[in-house]
Amino acid sequence: MSSPASNRRTFAIISHPDAGKTTLTEKLLLQGGAIHLAGEVKARGAARRARSDWMKIEQQRGISVTSSVMTFERDGITFNLLDTPGHEDFSEDTYRTLTAVDSAIMVIDAAKGIEPQTRKLFEVCRLRSVPIITFVNKVDREGRSVFETLDEVADALALDVVPMSWPVGMGGVFQGVLDFATDTISRPEGDSREFLGKREPATADNIPADIAEEIELAKAGYGDFDVEAYRHGDMTPVYFGSALKNFGVAELIDAIARYAPPPRPQPSESGTIEPTDKEVTGFIFKVQANMDPQHRDRIAFMRLVSGTFKRGMKLTPSALGKPVAIHSPILFFAQDRELADTAEPGDIIGIPNHGTLRVGDTLSENNKVRFTGLPNFAPEILRRVALKDPTKTKQLRKALDDLSEEGVIQVFYPEIGGQWIVGVVGQLQLEVLISRLEAEYKVEAVLEASPFDTARWVKGSDAALSQFADFNKSNRAKDRDGDMVFLARSAWDVSYQQERNPDLTFSATKER
Ligand code: GDP
């Protein structure tokens, strides 16, 4: 663990809305010294939101649409926490963010257990073998029995569970949390019953008999923590706590520092790229426009995979093919922006640009590496975009290009007819689209039913493609990159075409 990459821990928090992700994020940043006042994450978020019209949707719905990066340091470890929007309609954005982390914390509500969104996000983590540390939150309130929660995690997610701590009562009889590693109990203090630093060694006298019995049963029943099994994604260590009252937060940070994996190697077309490789490489997993409406800036978030990045360095984005100098990279310390001079594998760099960088792009010094496995998700809802003012066609085209590049929507330009089609994964993306068209591009548009039901990217030899294209003009479109898309009226349509054109592939996602 002596390579420079090994002191990075890049992770995300996955949870169902309301389980306590925001509160936990705030407490992690507070402990890590990134912010100094509780409430600051929300307060600053609110100030920022007020400046941007489209983010009103966030406020109204109480969800977080924007995804950001928060970096903090403790005991020589740099933690990169990637925030993920919690609402299910933003799964595409969340999934992409999960391609850029090495591990995740799964927050569950002690009273509610595994909820639908937790399960969905967990499945994404499992697909990519992202190891999970579980945090059972809100033990200061009445919750289910600890065994019930542990067994639910084990059964629902098919994981081995190992409790790393145990609540000493919950709700009205909550007396703190016993940490197994140190055998100490963190105690509530004062009127707020928060954890303010008071720890006591556990003894036979200060743990109620029924709880001592539970713990004994648990230790016999659940086996020992095995860091390799955890890193494989087979086992999850489970911590109990209260983000609101600060219980279990320090233990959680220690667990990430100690057990969570350092930056992982990344698959590419030409083999695996190791974090220790000298060449600077990375990939863009998110693009966010107009973070500051005053500047109309666009930030591409790059996960550094290998090499030591230095400010001013020239990197070649795979889609562009020629090098660009990265003069003003940004590291995110809480919500503040700071210029980064260097960055190591695992770090996230914000790169301001005017549309040259796209989700899925590989950046590298030699322009040879192409990372794989960064999918565009299949659009499940297709809509035709109609303008209220037909003279605004140019503005609409620009807006659709921008927003598709950001990953808010996917856009398809049919070969025949002037009506453009947008594809999304969830309904809420459509609302964001309309609202941002108005706020940022002054374009009023409405969405109409589309004759198409689904879209497939078509690939094959030039000859096969052109033959296919000749016969299917009215079903053919180009995406923002000019790649051919088959717009199908039904799933049957897709299988029919597939059968008739065995030399072509019809893929639901576009891997870049
Ligand atoms: P998110 O939607 O997952 O980001 O959840 P929030 O962090 O916004 O929390 C949802 C609600 O649960 C808020 O009212 C929090 O104050 C409350 N909450 C969060 N953590 C705890 C906790 O440990 N104990 C209690 N009692 N309430 C909590």
Automatic annotation (TrEMBL):
<comment type="similarity">
    <text>Belongs to the TRAFAC class translation factor GTPase superfamily. Classic translation factor GTPase family. PrfC subfamily.</text>
</comment>
<keyword id="KW-0648">Protein biosynthesis</keyword>
<dbReference type="InterPro" id="IPR000795">
    <property type="entry name" value="T_Tr_GTP-bd_dom"/>
</dbReference>
<comment type="function">
    <text>Increases the formation of ribosomal termination complexes and stimulates activities of RF-1 and RF-2. It binds guanine nucleotides and has strong preference for UGA stop codons. It may interact directly with the ribosome. The stimulation of RF-1 and RF-2 is significantly reduced by GTP and GDP, but not by GMP.</text>
</comment>
<feature type="binding site">
    <location>
        <begin position="137"/>
        <end position="140"/>
    </location>
    <ligand>
        <name>GTP</name>
    </ligand>
</feature>
<dbReference type="GO" id="GO:0006449">
    <property type="term" value="P:regulation of translational termination"/>
</dbReference>
<protein>
    <recommendedName>
        <fullName>Peptide chain release factor 3</fullName>
    </recommendedName>
</protein>
<dbReference type="InterPro" id="IPR031157">
    <property type="entry name" value="G_TR_CS"/>
</dbReference>
<dbReference type="GO" id="GO:0005525">
    <property type="term" value="F:GTP binding"/>
</dbReference>
<dbReference type="InterPro" id="IPR038467">
    <property type="entry name" value="RF3_dom_3_sf"/>
</dbReference>
<keyword id="KW-0963">Cytoplasm</keyword>
<feature type="domain" description="Tr-type G">
    <location>
        <begin position="6"/>
        <end position="264"/>
    </location>
</feature>
<dbReference type="Pfam" id="PF16658">
    <property type="entry name" value="RF3_C"/>
</dbReference>
<dbReference type="GO" id="GO:0003924">
    <property type="term" value="F:GTPase activity"/>
</dbReference>
<dbReference type="InterPro" id="IPR032090">
    <property type="entry name" value="RF3_C"/>
</dbReference>
<dbReference type="Pfam" id="PF00009">
    <property type="entry name" value="GTP_EFTU"/>
</dbReference>
<dbReference type="InterPro" id="IPR035647">
    <property type="entry name" value="EFG_III/V"/>
</dbReference>
<dbReference type="GO" id="GO:0016150">
    <property type="term" value="F:translation release factor activity, codon nonspecific"/>
</dbReference>
<dbReference type="InterPro" id="IPR005225">
    <property type="entry name" value="Small_GTP-bd"/>
</dbReference>
<keyword id="KW-0342">GTP-binding</keyword>
<dbReference type="InterPro" id="IPR053905">
    <property type="entry name" value="EF-G-like_DII"/>
</dbReference>
<dbReference type="InterPro" id="IPR004548">
    <property type="entry name" value="PrfC"/>
</dbReference>
<dbReference type="GO" id="GO:0097216">
    <property type="term" value="F:guanosine tetraphosphate binding"/>
</dbReference>
<dbReference type="GO" id="GO:0005829">
    <property type="term" value="C:cytosol"/>
</dbReference>
<dbReference type="GO" id="GO:0016149">
    <property type="term" value="F:translation release factor activity, codon specific"/>
</dbReference>
<dbReference type="InterPro" id="IPR027417">
    <property type="entry name" value="P-loop_NTPase"/>
</dbReference>
<keyword id="KW-0547">Nucleotide-binding</keyword>
<feature type="binding site">
    <location>
        <begin position="15"/>
        <end position="22"/>
    </location>
    <ligand>
        <name>GTP</name>
    </ligand>
</feature>
<feature type="binding site">
    <location>
        <begin position="83"/>
        <end position="87"/>
    </location>
    <ligand>
        <name>GTP</name>
    </ligand>
</feature>
<dbReference type="InterPro" id="IPR009000">
    <property type="entry name" value="Transl_B-barrel_sf"/>
</dbReference>
<dbReference type="Pfam" id="PF22042">
    <property type="entry name" value="EF-G_D2"/>
</dbReference>
